[in-house]
Amino acid sequence: MSGFFSLLPDILPMIMPSEVQITKASDLEAQRDGKDAPMIRQGAVIGKSDRMCATVLIAQPHCSSAVHHHGEQETIIYAASGTGMYVLILVTSSGADEEPKRHELSPGDFAFIPPWTEHQEINETDEKVVWILIRSGPEPVVVYLTGWGGDEAKADSID
Predict the structure, then answer these.
(1) pLDDT at residue 81 greater than cutoff 70
(2) Distances (CA, A) of 3 to 8, 38, 117, 135
(3) What is the pTM of this model?
């Protein structure tokens, strides 16, 4: 009988209707630094699922994020608007010191960032760029680093 009860969390969503939840664009709120920061992350679907969350990243012209990773979370990026935004990814599979690899995303492109992968978003263009970020956790995890392969940065030292 106890085996049945352990299955309830997986079975209940299939037999009981769930409520659709909508987040209007006008209800998005900046998660860090406020609406005037050069790179704004807005929570879109946060804490509504135990398996995924979504944010909107708005990068003003000529700005970049700090080098960071998302811990155990997988991340999918969808480029919604703006051309020429780069994601730099440090590839360390060979164990040797390597330069980060630059990947350009244009509207309609997708990128997959594996867990623990160090990366940095850069907008070197003259236009605003908007990305949609989907992560494999109920709330976004962002671990800022002091640089490529660096230690975890203190919250007050992050650009």
Answers:
(1) yes
(2) 9, 51, 37, 30
(3) 0.78
Of the pLDDT bands very low, low, confident and very high (cuts 50, 70, 90), residue 97 is: low
Regarding beta strands 101-105 and 68-69, do their DSSP bridges make them parallel or antiparallel, or are they unpaired? unpaired
- Is the distance from CB of 129 to CB of 63 less than 8 angstroms? no
What residue has token string 């867990």?
115
The whole-angstrom separation of Cα 139 and Cα 142 is: 10
Q: What is the pLDDT of residues 16-42, one digit of tens each?
A: 667 888 888 888 876 655 566 788 889
- Contact between 63 and 120 (Cβ < 8 Å): no
Strands (E) in the chain, as ranges, are 29-30, 39-45, 53-59, 63-64, 68-69, 75-81, 85-89, 101-105, 110-113, 119-123, 129-135, 143-144
Give the whole-angstrom CA distance, residue 45 versus residue 13.
18
Amino acid at 141: V
Question: Across the chain, what does the average pLDDT equal?
Answer: 83
